[in-house]
Amino acid sequence: MPTLQSVVENASCLARISNNRDVEAKAMIVQASIYMNLNQNSLAIDLCRHSWNIYKELGDKQGICKSLIGLGGVYSGTLNEYPQALDAYTTALAIAEELKDTYRIALILGCMGSVYSKLSDYPRALEYMGLALANHEATGAKSFIAQVLKNIGSIYDAVGDYDKALEYTHKALDVFTDLGMKPKIVSIISDIGRLYISTGSILRLRIPISVPCFV
Fold first, then answer.
1. What is the mean pLDDT of residues 22-32?
2. 209: how many CB neighbours lie within 10 A of its CB?
3. DSSP letters along the chain, please?
4. Model confidence over 138-176: pLDDT tens digits?
């Protein structure tokens, strides 16, 4: 059975043969994600940059934005090269704002918040996560809203503000429960339990009736 990587590589090859530059660039972004997961970061960066150049030739600003988001993801992921990641995200954000693309604005703001959290710049991380949350709420993207709420809870946990951490983590649990996202629910209940232990208030732990138990 062919692997996802081989399928995408074949698609990219066919796109080049047919001279379909848009499909070729899209395939490169997918390939870059695969190579990043395989820890082949130099290949992932090259593919993001190639797709970026193709989209620039095509004058496709949305495509440029996608390539930059991918590039930022490689830099901020296994490479931990945060200044380069922020450069890519900042450029992508400016394009997304020009296009009034609320979905990608929210996505990029969340990515930047995560980078600042990794840099232990927690005030700025909370600022960007708050902006990401507001934009996701504007689009009604519940799964993203829940993830950002969880991320904000994690930041408050990192600074030792456990009450705020519990507040946002419970909010995330409510949304994940509404969506029926079982793995997320299990994970976040574990986070809540750990937070109550951190506060020394384990007896306060109550799992809402509406949260299903899984076996």
1. 90
2. 6
3. ---HHHHHHHHHHHHHHTT-HHHHHHHHHHHHHHHHHTT-HHHHHHHHHHHHHHHHHHT-HHHHHHHHHHHHHHHHTTS--HHHHHHHHHHHHHHHHHHT-HHHHHHHHHHHHHHHHHTT-HHHHHHHHHHHHHHHHHHT-HHHHHHHHHHHHHHHHHTT-HHHHHHHHHHHHHHHHHHT-HHHHHHHHHHHHHHHHHHT-GGG----TTSPP--
4. 999 999 999 999 999 999 999 999 999 999 999 999 999
Structure tokens at 202: 């384990």
- From the number of C-beta atoms within 10 Å of its C-beta (0-12, 13-18, 19+), residue 46 rates as middle
Q: How far apart are CA 184 and CA 181, in angstroms?
A: 6
pLDDT per position as a tens digit, 77-98: 888 999 999 999 999 999 999 9
Domain ranges of the chain: 1-80
The whole-number pLDDT of residue 197 equals 84
Residue linked to tokens 């990587």: 5
How many Cα atoms are found within 13 Å in the side-chain-facing hemisphere of 43? 14
